[in-house]
Amino acid sequence: MVDGLFHVHSNLSHDGRLSILALVDLCREIGAGALFLTEHYDDLDPEKMEAFVSTCNAISAEGLCVVSGIEYDFPECSDTHVLAVGLERFVPRRDIRKTLEEIRSNGALIIVAHLSRNGGHIPDEILDIIHGCEVWNTGYDSRYVPNYKILTAFNRIKEKRPNILAFSGSDLHDKNGAKGLVLRFESPVQNVKDVLHCVKNGKFINKGLFFKYHATRRCFGFFTLMMVFFGNILIDTLYLGVLLKKRMWQGRKSNRQ
């Protein structure tokens, strides 16, 4: 089975630290066969987009599948970021609905990014046009388990849109962002077309270090929610313990000086 690293920023984005070639090397290092690049809209224009897509296509022709995409933000929905996955043409940003309609007409997937950023809210005006949402994002959530509150929010979204797909992403900006969370494809993939076919049809599993879920799964059940809830408490407790220990050590060091 092939794994894909989803929601990644190269140094084409203002906050990315690695070149596309360095990210390709990282994928090979961790055993991933697909890379989903989603560069920030404000860092691109038609000319840069054309060069970006050409680079992705050239690398993909040599083996590793590199999917081009853009991360959009919108002034009228400041907390809602959207990933246009598989987009090969620069689509100018207008109001959110019109922009997403044009993105979809270009054959790209529309994924609402990092639900944890906005408390699991998706504007009603775009709920019918998106393909999925990032339920787990290690840039905002733990690398071990997703956020309990976001899983419950996804359940509410699923009630409104039963066919919406569940995604997970790294929101990777540097090498430290590779935290073991991947999309594992259920069908053989040999090129970008195969990768996008799997993603569009929900033929993948979101797989982390200790937690996984299928793209097409129904609502998260009681047992799963409780497991994640107590996992969140444990992780928060351990983090607080490490923080307190660090501060105590710094205090003792200051007293000695």
Summarize the structure.
The protein folds into two domains: about 220 residues, TIM Barrel (Alpha-Beta Barrel), CATH 3.20.20.140; about 35 residues. It contains six helices and twelve strands.
Query: In order across it, which strands form the biggest sheet?
Result: 4-2-1-10-11-12
Order of helices and strands: EHEEHEEEHEEHEEHEEH
Q: In CATH terms, what is the architecture of the largest domain?
A: Alpha-Beta Barrel
SS class: alpha/beta
Number of domains: 2
Number of helices: 6
Cα shape: globular
Helical fraction equals 25-40%
What's the gyration radius in Å? 19 Å
The number of distinct β-strands equals 12
Features of the shown structure:
257 residues, alpha/beta, TIM Barrel, 2 domains, six-stranded mixed sheet, 22% strand
Which secondary structure elements does this structure contain, and how are they paired or packed?
Elements: E1 3-8, H1 20-30, E2 34-37, E3 39-40, H2 46-60, E4 65-67, E5 69-74, E6 77-85, H3 96-105, E7 109-112, E8 132-137, H4 148-160, E9 165-169, E10 182-185, H5 192-200, E11 204-207, E12 212-214, H6 222-256
Parallel strand pairs: 1-2, 2-4, 3-5, 7-8, 8-9
Antiparallel strand pairs: 1-10, 5-6, 6-7, 10-11, 11-12
Helix pairs in contact: 4-6
Written description of the protein model:
The protein is of the alpha/beta class. The chain folds into two domains: 3-220, Alpha-Beta Barrel (TIM Barrel), CATH 3.20.20.140; 223-257. The protein contains six helices and twelve strands. The chain has helices spanning 20-30, 46-60, 96-105, 148-160, 192-200, 222-256; strands spanning 3-8, 34-37, 39-40, 65-67, 69-74, 77-85, 109-112, 132-137, 165-169, 182-185, 204-207, 212-214. A hairpin with a 2-residue loop joins β5 (69-74) and β6 (77-85).
